[in-house]
Amino acid sequence: MPAAMIEVRNLRKSFGDVRALAGADFDVAPGELFGLLGPNGAGKTTTINLLTGLARPDSGAIRIAGIDCARDPKAAQHLIGVVPDESNLYPELSGFDNLCFCGALYGLPREDRKNRAAELLEVFGLSDAAARKFAGYSKGMKRKLTMAAGIIQRPQILFLDEPTTGIDVASARRIRQMVADLRRSGTTILLTTHYIEEAERLCDRIAFLVAGRIVRTDTVANLMQPVQGRHVLQLRASVRTAAVPGLCASEFPKIRFHVLDDERIRAESREPIRVGTLVRFLEEQGVEVAEARIVQPTLEEVFVRLTGVEAAVMQKEKEKPGSRA
Amino acid sequence: MKRWIACWNIILKDMRTYYLKPPNISWGLIFPLAWTGMFFIRSGAGLDSVPGLLPGVMAISVLFGTTSMLAVTVTFEKKSRSFERLLLAPIPLGLLMLAKTAGAILFGTMNAFVPVVMAVFLANLSAVSWTVLLPVVVLIAVSSTFLGLFIAVSVSEVFEAQTFSNFFRFPMIFLCGLFFPIAQLPAWLRPLSYALPLTYGADALHEATARAGRLPLSLDVAVLAVFCLALFLVSLRNIKRKWIA
């Protein structure tokens, strides 16, 4: 088995004047769940299309399980499964027939693909809808069936392009659970997502992709290091919010205060913050504190620091009406 | 074996999903019937005109059956992105597109024999050389299907596919010697006739039905084969250039 199941070196791709990828480099080890995290237009889907043979790179190297795929994009397709960002099965076929057809595309014999289709429908809770046409499925059901179609041939490497975008909570949970199960069974997985919590929860390593460039690649633990050991308190005050940093500077020299907006203040320190003392002091200064809560450091903070992209912006962009699901 | 399973299932799926649907079967029956009726009435020569009309009606049935269906199905699947499923399958692109077009070739061939079945009851077809007719019809179906593929790969919308198809199809009805001999066309139009594949298909059909071909049958077959190969290769190149770009 090669040291890396996916090797990407200096991968570049432009569409006309638009530069989609500007020299991406990363490796995915056998059995690893690797996340590509970035906003819309960062180059996540382009990366997946290049790796799966749906597009050709302008330059750079791609090796899938040691096979050079930059020259022949179809060379490693027998090893891979793909769950695209859009549920693109055949609307006029039933759920069962869609899975059987996808199995047939990988050469599964008739009985094998029937058994596998039935098994996957059961796993994804779609057995009751097996005979129903795909066109009549809900968004969540479509996503689950698309996921099932991507793994019908038991691929060694699975590419998941935003698998939980725009679907209900229960379906998203089922898909995440399935992804975790596949990882445990040894499947190498490349997952793109703009949901930071999803990447944090599922991935062994994460690459932050912004404007076609990989800003940072590391394990979740290493990425979290800059924000580990910090204590953060978020305050909501009704008046004199902007004056808080100045008022507290001499009394609390080890705490850094940031005014987030008209109401919210963020207090950060390397030492535990004594909430009662701080709140009492502020109220003595005429600042009415409506709320004070300890905030746990998250990967979102790391992402925002490194990329300058607000995580909330990423999610809102994708959830706009008309966004693909 | 794995590739055979994949290709066979692509053909089966297309037949079930597109070609054997009741509206398409009725289209396959009504269209040749309408053309036969139109030219039968127009000729005014009664049932004696049927054998002479047969090559033209068969050729039109194949041409419209294949180009209409393929231009729509491929364009539709490309637009809905389900075509990506096929592009992701571990099958060489050439083999994949042969499987994808095989359904249209079968549909076109079956369409061609609808007017033949009708003609059997109306006229004496004893002069027809069936052993020549069948391979010629298949060859016309292949060339028309690959023309449909070329059109489907050149456009992105279903309506564009239909419009672009008509750009080729309607001139072919009048320029390819289906119902009017090419010799009767103005001299400046004749070179255009010989640049169209259906001219050779129609000539071979005239030869097979009434020994009335104007070109050697071997030349008709060779030129049709070259058109098939050229259209297929150009379509494959366009797929690689446009769809796997």
Question: What labels describe this entry?
Answer:
heterodimer, A: 325 residues, alpha/beta, Rossmann fold, Alpha-Beta Plaits, 2 domains, 6-stranded mixed beta sheet, 4-stranded antiparallel beta sheet, elongated, disordered C terminus, B: 245 residues, mainly alpha, 78% helix, globular
Mean pLDDT metric of chain B: 87
Proportion in β-strands of chain A: 25-35%
Low-pLDDT regions of chain B: none
Proportion of residues in helical segments of chain A: 25-40%
- Radius of gyration of chain A, taken over Cα atoms and rounded to an integer in Å: 24 Å
Number of individual domains of chain B: 1
CATH superfamily placement of the largest domain in chain A? P-loop containing nucleotide triphosphate hydrolases
The spatial strand order of the largest sheet of chain A comes to 6-7-8-3-9-10
Give the number of helices of chain A.
11
Q: What general form of chain A does the structure show?
A: elongated
Largest sheet of chain B: none
Radius of gyration of chain B, CA atoms, in whole angstroms: 18 Å
Overview of the structural elements:
The complex is a heterodimer of chains A (325) and B (245). Chain A has 325 residues and is an alpha/beta fold. Helix content of chain A is 33%, strand content 26%. Chain A is built from eleven helices and 14 strands. In chain A, the strands form three sheets. In chain A, strands 6-7-8-3-9-10 form a six-stranded mixed sheet, sandwiched between helices. A four-stranded antiparallel sheet of chain A has the order 2-1-4-5, with helices on one face. In chain A, strands 12-13-11-14 form a four-stranded antiparallel sheet. Chain A is elongated. By secondary structure, chain B is mainly alpha-helical. Chain B has helices at residues 2-19, 22-43, 50-79, 83-88, 93-120, 130-154, 158-175, 190-193, 197-210, 217-242.
